[in-house]
Specification:
The protein is an alpha/beta fold. Helix content is 40%, strand content 21%. The protein has an eight-stranded mixed sheet, with helices on both faces. It has a two-stranded antiparallel sheet with strand order 3-4. Strands 6-9 form a two-stranded antiparallel ribbon. The protein binds adenosine-5'-diphosphate and magnesium ion.
C-alpha cells in the first residue's frame, strides 16, 4: 500500500517532528512487544511489523518480541486431524499437541519473524524458554473462574516459575533483537506451552521494561456493547471480569497487563495489530490506539 503521494510535504515533516519527544523519552528503554492475532498471518502486516521493530531499534529503543501462534498451531493440528480445545483462554495441551506446539512455534513462527526482521534490515535472534535457561516452568494449576473448588486439567500448559533474563540482556547489549517463543521447561526438562501474553508480561516485569505492547486482533478491550474502552483501571477491570465482559483469550492478556502495570511497567497497551504500523503510531506519535491499562 502506498498512500504517500496524498500527504503534503508539510504534513510529512510535521509527523516526523512529532516523533522527536518520544524518541528522546524512550531512547535506551526496553519495550516488550507481544506479537499475535491476525497481524501474524497477513504477509503485508508481517512486513510492516518487522519494519516497525527495526525502526524502533534504529532510534535507540530496545524491542524484545514475544510471539504467539494460535492460528498456526490450529492449522497444524487440523492437518493432523486434531481439534484444539480451550478452557478459560488456555489451550488444552496433551503430549502430542505439545510436540506440535513446539515445532510450530520454535521451528516455524519464530524463524519466520527472525527472517522478516532481517529482511527489514535488523538482526534478530530466536530463543525458546530453554535457551539460556530463560523460562523455568511447572504445570499450571488452573482453578475455575467462577468456582475455585474446581480444578481444570489443561495438560502441559505451564505456569512460569522464574524468568532468568541473562540471555535476553546479553543479546540487547550486543544490539540484537530477541524473538522469544513462549515455551518453558520443567525440572525434568519437560516442555510447557505457556500463553504468550503471560510470558510477555513476566518478561516486561523482569526487564523493568518501559512499555508492554500487546498486538491483537480486536481494536482493544471492548465493552458489552462492543465499544472500545480506551482506558482501564484495576477497579474497572475487576468489574469487567465479574460480569463476563472479558473472556477467552482476553483473560490472560488483561491479567498480564494488570500485573505488569502493578509491577512498575510504565505503560501497557492492547492495540489492533490489523492496523498497518499500529505499534509505531502508538509508541512514536500523539495518536493513541486501543486500550491503555493503568494500575490505579
Ligand atoms: P491473540 O492471538 O492476540 O492472543 P486471542 O484470541 O487469544 O488473540 O485473544 C483476543 C480475543 O479475545 C478477541 O479476538 C476476542 O474474541 C476475545 N475477547 C474476549 N473478551 C473480549 C473483550 N472484552 N474485548 C475484546 N476482545 C475480547
Ligand atoms: Mg491469545
Amino acid at each position: 500500500m502506498n498512500d504517500a503521494p496524498s500527504i503534503a510535504p508539510r504534513d510529512k515533516a510535521e509527523i516526523l517532528a512529532q516523533a522527536l519527544p518520544y524518541i528522546r523519552r524512550f531512547h535506551g528503554k526496553t519495550m516488550v512487544i507481544k506479537y499475535g492475532g491476525n497481524a501474524m498471518t497477513d504477509p503485508e502486516l508481517q512486513a510492516d511489523f518487522a519494519e516497525d521493530v527495526v525502526l524502533l531499534k534504529l532510534v535507540g529503543i530496545n524491542p524484545v518480541v514475544v510471539h504467539g501462534g494460535g492460528p498456526q498451531i490450529e492449522q497444524a493440528l487440523n492437518r493432523l486431524g486434531k481439534k484444539g480445545q480451550f478452557i478459560q483462554g488456555m489451550r488444552v495441551t496433551d503430549a502430542e499437541t505439545m510436540e506440535v506446539v513446539e515445532w510450530v512455534l520454535a521451528g516455524e513462527v519464530q524463524q519466520d519473524i527472525v527472517g522478516f526482521i532481517h529482511k527489514a534490515g535488523g538482526q534478530a535472534v530466536g530463543l525458546t524458554g530453554r535457551d539460556g535457561g530463560l523460562i523455568r516452568a511447572r504445570k499450571l494449576k488452573m482453578m475455575d473462574n467462577k468456582d475455585p473448588s474446581i480444578e481444570h486439567d489443561v495438560g502441559q500448559v505451564g505456569d512460569i516459575v522464574e524468568i532468568c533474563p541473562g540471555v535476553v540482556k546479553a543479546l540487547l547489549e550486543d544490539n540484537f533483537i530477541p524473538v522469544v517463543s513462549p515455551i518453558g521447561f520443567g525440572e525434568e526438562n519437560e516442555s510447557y506451552n505457556i500463553n504468550a501474553d503471560v510470558v510477555a508480561s513476566k518478561l516486561a516485569q523482569t526487564l523493568n521494561a518501559e512499555k508492554l505492547v500487546l498486538l491483537t486482533n480486536t481494536p482493544g478491550v471492548l465493552d458489552k456493547a462492543g465499544q472500545l474502552l480506551t482506558d482501564l483501571t484495576a477497579t474497572e477491570i475487576d468489574a469487567l471480569f465479574a460480569d463476563g465482559t472479558i473472556s477467552g483469550g482476553m483473560l490472560p492478556k488483561i491479567s498480564g497487563a494488570l500485573e505488569a502495570a502493578h509491577s512498575g511497567v510504565n505503560a501497557v497497551h492492547i492495540i489492533d495489530g490489523r492496523v498497518p504500523h499500529a505499534m509505531l503510531l502508538e509508541i512514536l506519535t500523539d495518536q493513541a490506539y486501543g486500550t491503555m491499562i493503568r494500575s490505579k
